[in-house]
Amino acid sequence: MEHKLHWKGLEELDDDPDFLLTRDKEFIDELPVEEIFNSSIVNKPASRRDFLKMLGFSVSAATMAASCRIPVKKAIPYVIKPEEIVPGVANYYASSFHDGNDYCPVLVKTRDGRPIKIEPLISSHIAKDSPNRFLFGGTNARAQASVLSLYDMTRPRQPMVTGKKAKWDVVDAEIRKRLLDTKNKGGNIRILTPTILSPSTKQIIDDFIVAYPTAKHIVYDPVSYAGIAIANEKSSGKRVIPGYHFEKANVIVSIGADFLGTWISPAEYARQYVQNRKVSPEKTTMSRHYQIESRLSLTGSNADKRAVVKPSEEAAAVVALYNMLAGSLGEAALPTGKLNSRADKLLSQAASDLIANKGKALVVAGSNDANVQVVVNAINAILGSYGSTLDLKAHSNTHQSDDKGMMQLMNDMNAGAVDALLIYGANPVYDHMHGNGFADALKKVQTSISLNDRADETTTLCRYHCPDHHYLESWNDLSAKAGLYTLCQPTIWPLFDTRQAQDSLLRWMGKTEDYYAYIKRTWEKNVFPKQAAYSDFQTFWDMSVKDGAFEVPVTESDVSSSISTDVMAAATAIMNAASKSSSIELQVYEKVGAGNGRYANNPWLQELPDPISKVVWDNYLCVSPKYAKDNGLKMDVVSHKTDVVTLTSGNTSMDVPVYIQPGQCDEAVSLALGYGRERAGRAGNKVGQNAFPFVTTNGDTCLYINPSISIKKTGRSFDLAMTQTHFSFEGRDAIRETSLARYQAHPNEGVEEKEELGKVWSETLYPEQEFPGIKWGMSIDLNSCIGCGACSVACQAENNVPVVGKTEVSRVHEMSWLRIDRYYSFPGETGMIDKEKDYDEIKDYQNVQVAFQPMLCQHCDNAPCENVCPVSATNHSSEGLNQMAYNRCIGTRYCANNCPYKVRRFNWLDYTTADVFPWNEPWKVPTLGVEDPGMSDPITRMVLNPDVTVRSRGVMEKCTFCVQRIQDGKLQAKKEGRPLKDGDVKSACQTACPADAITFGNVKDESSEVRKYHDDGRAYYVLAELNTRPAIAYMKKVRNTDEMIAGEKKEHKV
Amino acid sequence: MNCHRGVLEGESEAGTQDIQKIFAAYDNNKAIQWTKVHNLPDHVYFNHSQHVTVGKIACQTCHGPVETMEQIYQFSSLSMGWCINCHRQTDVQFADNDYYTMYTKLHKDFKEGKIDRVTEEMMGGTECQKCHY
Lengths: 1054, 133
Fold this sequence. Notes:
By secondary structure, chain A is an alpha/beta fold. Chain A has 33 helices and 42 strands. The A-B interface holds A 70, 72-80, 88, 772-774, 875, 877-879, 881, 883-888, 947-950, 960, 963-964, 967, 970-971, 973-975, 977-980, 1004-1005 and B 25-26, 29-36, 39, 42-43, 45, 47, 49-50, 53-54, 96-103, 105-106, 122-124, 127-130, 132-133.
């Protein structure tokens, strides 16, 4: 068993003395003893007036207390109870989440008529071998967090005309008149939307164009994948994004595509990807993943082998790979630039692996340059990927952005050629590379109408705002892939006086039909005839709504045989473009949480630490450690202070904080999109800087690399809140990993180790725990975990975990019950490093390896926290749960001090305003200057899970293993009078995980899946040597490398 | 309407009149503001089906002789001590519900006569997180 050196940050690796001082403390806050004793209040003798004040307070307080009676509570039941509502019992509705970018079929959990949680949809209408099946069964962080956006107080309450409140009928009449006038005088109407997946909405837009023949529809996505679609048009005649099938690939090569984090459909790809990453004694093979990129992406951090290149060299890497593959077939090489030797070596390894796995290989690239994607298509054609790992038949319907059309629209608007503009779901003033230009052009449009669901940057410049519903209040149909239809149904009555955009369009066409009837009619005409299972439409419709999804076979002919590409022209264009490269280049990217900035006002996403940098509530310029050293840039993790630089490109210039990122290319910096919103709302305004102006274009498509930048140090510093080294393991060994070669040779290594452990565990001072019925346990497969953070947000939603804000995170007061620890390591040849001697020789910060570890309460059977609680507020249950009785907790925090896993969270402030009562609301008193009611807002509070206590200040809290779900699962079984089945209880983190990395269940049940994992050869318990006897087994990470890692155990000092 | 679908008359004239109020409210589609008699704090999770459907506890055990009450009053203290006490003293539907088959040791002890009853407490029914979470 190797014990490799894993480190969370450079400060930990370098033993930064300031860091070491804080590391060993569970609570970094010093007790303010001296301040109190030195303060004037204490030293001053109490004056008579003070005495009276105190007396006055205590007398009145006593009077208040004495007069308190048990409050009389009123109950108002339904006069006629809705059939489906049983108070206290949750209802689930199938629906779909789509915002123009992300798509995810979901199951909405509602309690008493309000949605409180998003679960993945598992649909019985989807065939087991359907190519679409990976869209189901998992979620991402944004889908999980979408329920909070429903209750966002900054949502518009009614339609607006030039910033003034208006009534729908007035707005409708005005807009209809203006549209008709425009039509009659032959004026141009434009409809601007992001990608629309809904066949019915597309039909409405077509109808609209029939009604207003001068109208045109322009599709614009803030982050475009048009390059792929254009390349496919060139190669196969179909302007589509293909269906990718990572599950069928034995070798995956990604050149700059973050397909597990943000690229096209990450939750789906993650689900596919892990199918062939999971190993077990029965299946000891896994896919091999090569990644070439310029920043450390979530995908790159999961790769088996990784090399860095400059952003502009990614194209050259694609051509180089083509040449290596074409060379083996005797075809002519294309002209290309030179790569660094490490990338070159990695590519040649990848090429030979690809050739050996023809038909079971997949190459993807992140570039939005159609020329690069043409070469990628040619590579995949050589490898026989079409029809296997690439599917042009069941293609994706997402991301249909027309970058050129958008530019044309702006030119038309500037020329005064657009008379009316309808914007539905797009916010180009914020998220277009020429956002300010769009704002200016918008002034020249006579009738500007926004149908956006927020009063965002673009909407506030429009004449009319006709706000759309939230998706949880809407009907819709979505077709994310050819042949797949999912439905979206309302799960709550609209909270505000908003109206679904499609209904608005129907009104403005003079139609009286509502959108629900319209969808049904479209389905009756277009979808119903495609199936044979139901003979009557209403039954078919009811079943489809219930199930949420419907699939029809794709009848199009396969085009895989006709892939033809002019790679020479593409390669020449790439060479010409590459001549613009410079010594330092910028790449702009999306973050896993924030995305394109649409959800900037969602505090769950803002406080989700970035999977790699672990920074919250900000974006920042990622620079490599070498670049930082060469340019004198500093980042102090302990004080959270980081240097600010001025980033300039052309006329765009902004001050951004730097973040020193291992794994970053020395010649590249990167900045996240989706920040710097001006009109996102209370939580999202002015968080970070807007990176969209740095996007460039090649005339056809938008490019997310910018080679002409300059960086200047400002001498100022900025507070960046990062959780990177919070809750440190102090150098103890929490992560285990091995190579595939070693795993294949010794699959049962862990079992032997566990036998050793048994000897340690048999010695204890305490009486043995007994579990008469159930013993709950969990397993987490580190090989499946991709570190995306969906579990973390799901936990927050399920368990009413509060958001604390940036300042509080800086003080290590974050409340997340489930955090994902990210560890770096050097891909040392033996896997072992003696820190004192040889790590200087191998440390190459550009080439670090990453491991993720979800860390939550381990529910130890020999729990160190339980022994030190003076009031037994935390104790052990007969089902193996480490229980926490909040009402008993007096807040000594001994338990957190004694927890080696650092998973207990103390409520320093009343974050969820559990203590607030109506006559104690400071934001209602204008003189106090408290504007933000936070969680005390009655609409925001609707998101709280009524089954889970809202904890107050001064109380310790932590993961409960979703005890409310445990109790519910047990009760269901009891009510049905049957034994508890495996899978009756699933934790929130488990259901949210797109990678099925988490398994929960009864470890006493020998047939349960969790037991199987606990007995597996890869299983280990974190810090098992402390005899804590955790209930969570981690499955060792296996990297697909051929290196035979040494087996001896070696201790290292940190 | 619940119970008053069947109970139309009170024992006294006043009772009957009060019951009429419920019918009037129903006919006018207007909800009645009831005074809640049985209150539990927010941090307690209580589920009726657990006790009625699974535990086969009669309503009157906790709510008292509701059928003879002129006006509903709180019959039990609903304090934690009262809950715990019942969990210590009441037999569970142990043999009749297949859910409990997993408690093999208790079954064995029962069969061997080591114990003569199985209470909720023996299966962890007095632990904090059975009600507080």
